[in-house]
């Protein structure tokens, strides 16, 4: 008599989860079609994505703060220069103050534009690197799993072929022995 024990299916995400192939595994997997990915790789991908997102957010926040500070400084300087020049009745002083204000404004605008361009370039590069890295990881895992599946299939086919050959050989030897016995007793 054979006693068959059925293991209950998990009701929540624990250290094991059923893959789409219907097989149990000793550690957590995430199933994609017929492929089961190790949780270790999933954790790595999640950590990489979180780190990249945090870095991008920090860079953007720093650039925004710098731009805001520069704009506030320019406004304060411009207001101060204009207020000082308005109390001065010499036309040369007013003209000189306006030139200074224009130069400061142009410099700040250039700095802001450069900062925005740098932020955009950094964000695009980071996103591209993350996407390419994730694609490479997923493709690598898929290739590894497919190689394992193909190798397992080949081994199973070889086992079946060898088993069939052995069964045929055993039956043929039994038939030959029975014929000899019949011949002997006849």
TrEMBL record:
The keyword Membrane applies. The keyword Transmembrane applies. This is ABC transmembrane type-1 domain-containing protein. It comes from Elysia marginata. The chain crosses the membrane at residues 40-61, 67-87, 99-132, 138-171. Keywords: Membrane, Transmembrane, Transmembrane helix.
């Amino acid at each position: 008599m054979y006693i068959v024990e059925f293991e209950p299916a998990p009701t929540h995400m624990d250290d094991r989860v059923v893959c789409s192939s219907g097989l149990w595994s000793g550690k957590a997997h995430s199933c994609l079609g017929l492929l089961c990915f190790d949780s270790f790789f999933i954790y790595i991908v999640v950590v990489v994505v979180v780190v990249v997102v945090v870095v991008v957010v920090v860079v953007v926040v720093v650039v925004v703060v710098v731009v805001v500070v520069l704009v506030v400084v320019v406004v304060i300087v411009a207001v101060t220069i204009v207020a000082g020049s308005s109390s001065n009745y010499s036309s040369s002083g007013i003209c000189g103050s306006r030139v200074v204000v224009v130069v400061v404004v142009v410099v700040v605008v250039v700095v802001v534009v450069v900062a925005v361009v740098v932020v955009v370039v950094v964000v695009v590069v980071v996103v591209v690197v993350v996407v390419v890295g994730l694609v490479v990881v997923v493709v690598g895992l898929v290739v590894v799993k497919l190689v394992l599946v193909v190798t397992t299939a080949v081994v199973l086919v070889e086992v079946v072929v060898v088993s069939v050959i052995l069964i045929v050989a055993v039956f043929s030897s039994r038939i030959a022995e029975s014929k000899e016995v019949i011949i002997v007793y006849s």
